[in-house]
Amino acid sequence: MNALKTLVYLAAISFVSVSTLAYAENNEQVKAAIEQTVAKLEQAVAALDKGEDAKVIVEMVLEAKQAQKPISTSDPKVAIKKAQGSNKLGQARTSLNDGDLKKGGELVKEALADYKEVKEKYNATH
What we know:
Helix content is about 85%, strand content about 0%. By secondary structure, the chain is mainly α.
């Protein structure tokens, strides 16, 4: 009976260890995705300020949109802010493709602010 208890105990510890490791790995992936998204949007804002071609900025917006995909959290405030930022990226892309640099630029800057807030809130809870 003691051997059975020991095996159950070891199995439980093993499960908890693997779960904790997976959580830590996922947490680092989310943080990396947030960092990449913010960095790409900062590049897009800098390109806007330099007067770069809209196609170049659209590429950066698309890269930021791809980078933000792995960002997932159970915190509703972070999830809502991420969704708002993602929506603004889509709107910015449309505006930039339509040749409206002013509106597209404003949306990129707003998305950057949203993702900086995502970063701040996520880091505060993780």
